[in-house]
């Protein structure tokens, strides 16, 4: 997928959600799309349901390492999950910067 297509997809997701896409928002969308309860999805990710709820609601930030692990478990893009994790850390720090991530391999 090209960078342009990625940014168009991200814009669509953000417009649909009515807010910038976060890792928690992405996880919630995937969970709902798979018609899974928070408890079942949390078990799949290896976290407690309350912790997943906190991630989905933006009360907890996921480390890049854990984001990569979640991506692997879900069969999704590691780069996207890590980028969202890092973006949340940058945003929390109040920095007006955009994060881009590329696989080094």
Question: What's the arrangement of secondary structure elements?
Answer:
Blueprint lengths: L2 H15 L5 H11 L4 H8 L3 H8 L7 H11 L3 H15 L13
Q: Looking at the structure, what is the overall shape?
A: globular
Instruction: Count the beta strands.
Output: 0
What's the CATH first level?
Answer: Mainly Alpha
Q: CATH H-level name... which superfamily?
A: lambda repressor-like DNA-binding domains
Distance between the termini: 17 Å
Largest sheet: none
Count of domain modules? 1
Element string (H = helix, E = strand): HHHHHH
Describe this protein with a few key phrases.
105 residues; mainly alpha; 434 Repressor (Amino-terminal Domain); 6 helices; 65% helix; globular
In short:
By secondary structure, this protein is an all-alpha fold. It has helices spanning 3-17, 23-33, 38-45, 49-56, 64-74, 78-92.
